[in-house]
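Please check both lines for our workbook:

___
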Amino acid sequence: MKSSTLNSLIGLVVVLGLGLWTVAFLLTREDSSANELLIHLGKTGATLALITAVGALVRQALKERDEARQAEKEKLDFYRGLLADFKSVHDRVENCRLLIEAHRSAKTYGEQLRNLVAGVVTLHNIKRALNPEFPELRKELDAPIVGMTAFLKKLLGEFRDHYKHISELQVVDEAWNKHLRDDMPKSGGPESYAPISRAWAEIEKLPELSVLRDDERYGEYKAAFIDHIDTASAILRARLPV
């Protein structure tokens, strides 16, 4: 039964009960020998009206409690979802940092920087999700989100400007290294083969990427990205039950 229909029915019962009591009261108030049936009918009407009204109040109170619980659950789920989104951005950046340095190739550089595009999209989506219903939280998270987004966009801007040249160098490096391996003197050994890596040499020169991958610049990376992640996570965890 829909809520509006049920409320209308409750109202009708209350009005009917009060009506019965009013009719009985008017018919018996000046007649001491009034019909007991009318008196009983009046009492029944009053009781019915009272029980119905109390029941309606109890039902409304329970409904409001359930709605409040559901709203609180949805809000906490939203906070947990934001934490998961921030973690996904953090994981993308950390994977990028570790894998580029480990593989030292233009291919891995290209793959990992493309993955960071999704991180920027996630941060934009978080900001939009906060707009309608969470103005205070949006204000608190604004600075961390802006900081993380700026860091990622610097890396992506550098990638846009330099990747084509680096990928071309990678193709040349691979062709040249294959030629060296194929033409290596039979008397020589692996130690006589020194592969070239001009693509990686160019990647090492990239200043924004250097902040991310160079352990000696970890403090800059922490200030530009990790601290913002930690701040956003702390703000959200403060809103969650322990």
Observations:
- The chain has seven helices and no strands.
- The two ends are 39 Å apart (CA to CA).
- Residues 3-237 form one domain.
- The first helix runs from residue 3 to 28.
